[in-house]
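Field log, afternoon session.

UNIT: design team B
ACTIVITY: writing a sequence onto a fixed backbone
BACKBONE:
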C-alpha cells in the first residue's frame, strides 16, 4: 500500500483470474473469423504483410547476423534498408518469434501478434485498474473498452498497446512516491513501447508530458531537486537504450530527406465531431453513417480554398497534399483525399462509453480519486486536441484554424516522419477507458442503492446491467465487415531454387513499379495499389530465401531505387548494364505471370534478350544473369 493513499488495490485472487478468462470470448468475437483458421491473414495485402516481413527479418537478423540488423535484404544495395522500408516493431517479437519457431509460418506468427496484443491490452488494463481499487466489474469494463474499441482494433498487429497503460501507471507512481524502482520500471516500459512503434513513442511521450504538467499544476509541485535529478537520469537512460535503434531511422531521414510535409498530415488528422462525438466508425450499428464523406462545399468555400492554397503555394512551394504542383488544387480534390484517410479517424467509442465517461467526470468518486480524475480528463482533452493535427477540419470542411500540433511538428525531432496524427487519439481512448471505470463504479453504486431501498438483491441487477452494456458496446464497436482474406499464394518454385543458391550481389525482381510513385502521376497513380501489393509480396517471399533483393516498398522510397529502375528500363544500353553491375545487381527474376502487355513486349525484345543469360526456368519465371 502506498503511504499517500493512492495505490491501495488488493492483491489479485483466483476470482480475478476467472474474470480475466471472460476476455477470451470477446477476443474470439471481435476478431472473427480469424480464430477459425489462423493460417489466413486478418487483412488484405498491405501493411500487415510489410510488418510480417519486418518482424521476420528482425528475428532472422538476431539469430544469424545481429551486426547487420538494420541492413535488411530488401532495397539492395541501400544501407539501413530496414529503416527505409519498415517501422521498428522489435518488441512485437515477444509474440511473433515463438509462433514462428513453433509453427514455421509467418502468417500464423503475425496472427498471434494480433491476438496477443489485444488480450495483453485487456489484461494489463484490468490489473492496473484493480490496483487503483476498482471493483472487478469496473476493471473488467475498462479493460474491455480499451482492448476492443473498434477505432484501434485494426492497429493491434503493429502497435503493442498493452505497454501504454503500464508506462502511465508506473510513471504516475513515480510522480507520487519518487522511488527509483518506479522510475526504472516506467523507463523500461517506455523503451519496450517505443521499440514496438515510434508512433506509440511520440504519442505516449507527449501524453506523459501532459500528465506531468497537469500533476504539477493541479496536485503537487514537482520543482524540487530530487525529482528533477531522478527524472533527468531516467530520461537519459531511455535515450541511451533507444539511441541504437532510433539513430538508423534518424540517419536515413536526414540522408534522404524523408519527412511528411505539413499538408500531407492534414488528411490523416481527426475530426472533433465525426471522430469523437458522432457515430461514424463502420460498426454493426453505425455502418451506414458517413459524416463529412460526401462532397458538399459551403457557399464560397471553394473560392476561399483556392485563395488560401495559392498563398500557401507561393510561401511554401508545396501543396496541402505534400506534392509540388505547377497548377492550383481544387477543393474537391483535397476533400476526396481527406475522405480516403477516414480509417485513421474512426475514434468514436460509442455512446455506451461516452455515457460512462460523462458519469465518471460528474459522478461520485472517493476524495483522492478526484485528483486522478482530473489528470485523466486533462489527458483525454489534450491528446484529443493533438489528434486534430495542424488544421482543424469539421465534417470535411477546412476551418483554417491552426492546432497546437503545428508547434510540435516543427520543434519535436522525428515528428515530421509521422503522418497519421489521428493516432494520438489512442491515448485519449486509454484515458476514456479509465474514466469509464469511475463511471461504471458510480453507476453500480446507484443501482445497488436502488435495490437496497426496495429490499432486492443487487447482484442480479448489476449482472443484467453489465450484460446490457456489453451488448450495446458490441453493437457500437463490432466491425460490420469482417472477412477471411485469402492467404498469399505459396512462393513459386523459383524461390526454392534461390534459397539453395549462393547469389553474388542482389536480385532484381521483374516487373517492378513504374512512374514516379506520386498519386498524381498518371502512369503510377492508376496502378499504385497493384504495384505496392506486388512489392509487398516480393518482400514477403524473400522470407523463404533471404537473398538480397532490389525490390521493396514502405513509407519511403530511396532515390537509388528510382535510379536502378530507370537503368532497367534503359536495357540493353551498355551504360545501364554497367550501372547495374556496379550496384551489385547481376541477377534478374522475370515473373512472367505478372507481366503486363508492355512488359511482355519489352522483355521479349531480341536486343534485351542478348544482355541476359537464362540460368533456370521454373513455374512461369526465368532467373537470368546480366552478360
Amino acid at each position: 500500500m502506498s503511504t499517500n493513499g493512492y495505490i491501495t488495490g488488493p492483491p489479485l485472487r483466483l476470482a480475478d483470474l476467472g474474470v480475466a478468462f471472460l476476455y477470451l470470448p470477446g477476443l474470439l468475437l471481435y476478431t472473427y473469423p480469424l480464430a477459425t483458421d489462423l493460417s489466413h491473414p486478418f487483412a488484405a495485402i498491405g501493411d500487415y504483410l510489410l510488418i510480417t516481413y519486418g518482424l521476420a527479418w528482425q528475428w532472422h537478423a538476431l539469430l544469424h547476423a545481429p551486426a547487420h540488423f538494420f541492413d535488411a535484404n530488401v532495397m539492395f544495395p541501400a544501407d539501413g534498408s530496414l529503416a527505409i522500408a519498415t517501422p521498428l516493431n522489435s518488441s512485437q517479437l515477444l509474440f511473433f518469434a515463438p509462433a514462428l519457431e513453433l509453427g514455421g509460418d509467418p502468417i500464423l506468427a503475425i496472427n498471434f501478434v494480433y491476438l496477443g496484443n489485444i488480450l495483453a491490452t485487456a489484461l494489463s488494463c484490468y490489473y492496473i485498474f484493480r490496483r487503483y481499487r476498482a471493483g472487478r466489474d469496473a476493471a473488467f469494463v475498462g479493460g474491455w473498452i480499451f482492448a476492443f474499441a473498434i477505432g484501434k482494433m485494426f492497429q493491434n498487429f503493429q502497435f503493442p498497446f498493452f505497454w501504454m497503460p503500464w508506462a502511465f501507471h508506473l510513471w504516475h507512481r513515480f510522480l507520487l512516491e519518487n522511488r527509483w524502482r518506479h522510475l526504472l520500471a516506467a523507463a523500461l516500459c517506455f523503451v519496450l513501447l517505443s521499440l514496438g512503434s515510434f508512433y506509440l513513442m511520440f504519442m505516449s511521450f507527449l501524453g506523459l508530458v501532459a500528465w506531468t504538467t497537469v500533476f504539477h499544476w493541479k496536485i503537487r509541485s514537482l520543482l524540487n531537486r530530487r525529482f528533477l535529478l531522478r527524472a533527468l537520469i531516467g530520461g537519459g537512460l531511455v535515450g541511451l537504450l533507444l539511441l541504437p535503434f532510433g539513430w538508423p531511422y534518424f540517419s536515413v531521414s536526414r540522408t534522404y530527406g524523408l519527412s511528411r510535409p505539413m499538408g500531407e498530415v492534414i488528411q490523416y488528422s481527426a475530426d472533433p465531431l465525426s471522430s469523437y462525438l458522432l457515430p461514424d466508425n463502420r460498426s454493426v450499428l453505425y455502418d451506414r453513417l458517413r459524416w463529412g464523406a460526401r462532397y458538399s462545399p459551403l457557399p464560397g468555400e471553394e473560392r476561399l480554398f483556392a485563395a488560401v492554397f495559392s498563398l500557401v503555394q507561393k510561401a511554401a512551394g508545396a501543396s496541402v497534399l505534400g506534392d509540388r504542383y505547377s497548377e492550383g488544387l481544387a477543393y474537391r480534390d483535397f476533400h476526396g483525399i481527406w475522405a480516403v484517410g477516414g480509417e485513421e479517424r474512426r475514434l468514436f467509442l460509442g455512446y455506451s462509453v461516452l455515457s460512462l465517461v460523462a458519469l465518471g467526470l460528474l459522478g461520485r468518486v472517493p476524495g483522492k480519486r478526484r485528483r486522478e480524475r482530473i489528470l485523466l480528463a486533462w489527458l483525454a482533452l489534450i491528446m484529443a486536441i493533438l489528434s486534430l493535427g495542424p488544421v482543424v477540419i469539421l465534417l470535411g470542411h477546412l476551418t483554417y484554424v491552426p492546432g497546437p500540433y503545428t508547434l510540435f511538428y516543427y520543434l519535436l525531432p522525428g515528428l515530421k516522419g509521422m503522418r497519421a496524427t489521428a493516432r494520438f487519439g489512442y491515448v485519449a481512448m486509454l484515458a476514456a477507458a479509465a474514466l469509464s471505470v469511475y463511471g461504471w463504479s458510480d453507476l453500480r453504486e446507484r443501482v445497488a442503492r436502488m435495490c437496497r431501498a426496495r429490499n432486492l438483491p443487487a447482484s442480479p441487477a448489476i449482472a443484467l446491467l453489465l450484460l446490457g452494456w456489453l451488448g450495446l458496446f458490441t453493437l457500437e464497436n463490432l466491425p460490420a465487415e469482417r472477412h477471411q482474406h485469402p492467404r498469399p499464394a505459396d512462393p513459386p518454385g523459383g524461390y526454392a531454387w534461390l534459397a539453395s543458391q549462393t547469389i553474388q550481389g542482389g536480385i532484381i525482381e521483374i516487373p517492378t513499379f513504374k512512374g514516379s510513385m506520386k498519386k498524381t502521376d498518371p502512369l503510377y497513380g492508376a496502378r499504385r495499389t497493384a504495384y505496392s501489393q506486388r512489392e509487398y509480396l516480393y518482400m514477403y517471399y524473400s522470407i523463404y530465401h533471404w537473398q538480397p533483393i532490389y525490390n521493396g516498398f514502405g513509407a519511403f522510397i530511396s532515390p537509388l531505387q528510382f535510379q536502378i529502375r530507370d537503368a532497367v528500363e534503359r536495357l540493353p544500353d551498355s551504360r545501364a548494364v554497367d550501372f547495374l553491375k556496379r550496384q551489385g545487381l547481376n541477377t534478374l527474376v522475370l515473373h512472367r505471370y505478372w507481366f503486363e502487355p508492355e512488359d511482355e513486349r519489352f522483355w521479349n525484345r531480341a536486343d534485351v534478350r542478348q544482355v541476359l543469360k537464362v540460368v533456370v526456368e521454373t513455374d512461369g519465371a526465368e532467373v537470368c544473369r546480366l552478360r
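LOG NOTE: Residues 225-256 form the longest helix (32 residues).
NEXT ACTIVITY: expression trials, pending approval
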